[in-house]
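In practice, a research group might receive sequence data for several interacting partners and want a quick structural hypothesis before committing to experiments. The following worked case mirrors that situation: the sequences arrive first, and a predicted assembly follows.
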Amino acid sequence: MMTAMSAAGADDADHAADEAARRSVPGAGGAWSTQLNALGGFIRAQRQLAQLSLREMAALTSVSNAYLSQVERGLHQPSLKVLHSIADALQLSTEQLLAQAGWVGATAAGPAAPEPAAGGVDTEAAIRNDPRLTPEQRAALLGVYRSFVDGDG
Amino acid sequence: MMTAMSAAGADDADHAADEAARRSVPGAGGAWSTQLNALGGFIRAQRQLAQLSLREMAALTSVSNAYLSQVERGLHQPSLKVLHSIADALQLSTEQLLAQAGWVGATAAGPAAPEPAAGGVDTEAAIRNDPRLTPEQRAALLGVYRSFVDGDG
DNA sequence: CCGCGTTGCTTGACATACTTATCGCCGGTG
DNA sequence: CACCGGCGATAAGTATGTCAAGCAACGCGG
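A structural hypothesis for the assembly, expressed as tokens:
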């Protein structure tokens, strides 16, 4: 039930828009989760744009209509699961939702010192010889790998 | 409970690798233990890369070391708040973490086609062929490795 | 007027994210 | 040796996300 099939009722969206306008969020004055309100508003707008009711979207996302309602009004911060389901149901990319929420757009880093070399046979050896890994990265990756094989035997 | 061998060394890393994962999600099941392991492994690798202890990172992220430990071992799914804090502390972009967790990149609307990373196939092949790794571990390790060579250039 | 079906929203119970306190282990110092 | 301080991992407790059920308002047909 993740795949969007749309074509729900094709009633009239004017109603939905109207209702939303009337109920609009109290917003003004509350300086606390602006981001949540933005996210919720965005989701609500997109949902109405897709002409979905809360219950329809609930069915599509496997999330209860009740919780969707709360999320749309900025009363709760949805988890990644839910966020992803919503994005899927609305045929948006998760990144769009996250950007709306203001949660993406941070730093980036990455020093590199690649060097030409040739491969190996064992995984450990391959990691050690990998030219694209910095010494630190090698150590880290090796640590993860060894943690795996250590538990395995 | 499980094979408790502890791990204390400052520059030694081991542990993880657990297949006992029971997730009772009502409505729809999930196969995300793999993604959680990948995310956790990635975070741990990055933390070790930055030469941070769990407690140091806890101070940096305002998240308890205990919870960080569990996240790194794939026992819990961190919320956006926490994820963002971690990304910030490790000087990564939140997108990288999300991509690592597999939560972005496969939407119904977009063309889901991540590059197959043409080029140094040596290490990747070695990981894929390693008989000592379980499929889940393979996926996690591959994720970490690719995050290194891909996001860092 | 009535019921019937729809909409969005609120409440109370449960599962999960997260914290504070503690454990076992190791390295250094007296 | 005992003691201290750091490390990662665990146990029990608190906060928060999430669900199932029920409510008030609107529109439609009798």
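Before designing any experiment, note the following. Residues 135-152 of chain A form the longest helix (18 residues). Residues 15, 19, 63-64, 66-67, 70, 76-79, 82 of chain A lie near DNA strand D (CB under 10 Å from a C1').
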